[in-house]
UniProtKB/TrEMBL annotation:
Enzyme Commission identifier(s): 2.5.1.74
Keyword Transmembrane carried by entry: yes
Biological processes, Gene Ontology terms: menaquinone biosynthetic process; vitamin K biosynthetic process
Organism: Arachnia propionica
GO molecular function, one term: 1,4-dihydroxy-2-naphthoate polyprenyltransferase activity
Protein name in the entry: 1,4-dihydroxy-2-naphthoate octaprenyltransferase
HAMAP family: MenA_1 (MF_01937)
Keyword annotations of the record: Cell membrane, Membrane, Menaquinone biosynthesis, Transferase, Transmembrane, Transmembrane helix
UniProt enzyme class: transferase
GO CC term (a single one): plasma membrane
Length: 296
């Protein structure tokens, strides 16, 4: 099978949501003056990034499989769906998700062994369960309107705070500001994704948050998450260095897409919004890291 199909099925546009909290977690430690050996500063976050990326790819394949076998992906305007389109057998897609989870688990075990924080094994297990049960199982929480909350928790708080903790053995206040910022933008990615699919989801009975609160409220909820990300960056800069305000640069690319979103953009017109939000989250994390490096 063409490898490009599997790359598309992994939904590359979502991967910044996995990388951003790792960068932000390192930025929080550096910006707060935490000192660690260079090997640790380079190795541990790199391993954390592998864990986060593997989890993100795993949840994307798991979502593809679960929605595909339920029939809720039969009509979509977004990325390639391997199961629903018939490009791959359902069992193969499911196995790809399990392999991704296994990579995350093994790499996470190495991180725990290096850091000595064995209680994080329980957190890792919860993260894998959350990835599977987003759309898997009999009562997936993604169908209960809880997807955005779980993304904020695991791809915001857990990933960012966890990275700072295992790298620096500390969780300074700036970590929570960084975690809130990237978590809000990661949640915003899911909000705009569900807004794009709102009509199709409502038709097949997929009860995302967007289908529960409606089109207009979803659009303003998205904007409110951007505001949270903006304010969190200001808070981070106040706790570390003014140079961390470089994290705000990425918000510039959202100005035009947000205007179109509030004007009523739908369907494929929202794909640009997804791309801009993804870039903004990554730019925020890079900006924080570059800012604290310059400031220190």
């Amino acid at each position: 099978m063409n490898p490009s199909i599997w790359v598309a099925g992994a939904r590359p546009r979502t991967l910044p949501a996995a990388a951003a909290p790792i960068l932000a977690g390192v930025a929080a430690g550096v910006g707060s003056g935490q000192a660690v050996p260079l090997w640790r500063l380079l190795l541990v976050p790199a391993l954390c990034a592998i864990v986060a990326l593997a989890l993100q790819v795993g949840v994307n394949y798991a979502n593809d499989y679960s929605d595909g076998i339920r029939g809720t992906d039969d009509v979509r305007v977004g990325p390639t769906r391997l199961t629903a389109s018939g490009l791959a057998r359902p069992g193969t897609v499911r196995n790809a998700a399990f392999i991704s989870f296994a990579v995350a688990a093994v790499t996470g075990l190495v991180v725990v062994a290096i850091s000595g924080t064995w209680w994080l094994l329980a957190v890792g297990a919860l993260a894998i369960l959350a990835a599977w049960y987003y759309t898997g199982g009999r009562r997936p929480y993604g169908y209960l309107g809880l997807g955005e909350l779980m993304v904020f928790i695991f791809f915001g708080l857990v990933a960012t705070v966890g990275t700072t903790h295992v790298t620096f053995h500390a969780v300074p206040p700036a970590t929570w500001a960084a975690a809130t910022g990237v978590g809000a933008l990661a949640s915003a990615l899911l909000v705009v994704n569900n807004l794009r699919d709102l009509a199709a989801d409502a038709e097949v009975g997929k009860r995302t948050l967007a289908t529960r609160i409606g089109d207009r409220a979803t659009r303003w909820f998205f904007v409110s998450l951007l505001v949270v990300g903006f304010i969190s960056t200001l808070a981070f800069a106040g706790l570390t260095t003014p140079w961390a305000l470089l994290g705000l640069v990425g918000f510039v690319v959202l100005l035009a897409p947000v205007a179109r979103l509030l004007a009523g953009a739908v369907g494929r017109d929202l794909i640009a919004m997804l791309q801009a939000t993804s870039l903004t989250e990554l730019a925020l994390a890079f900006g924080l890291l570059i800012g604290v490096a310059v400031g220190s």
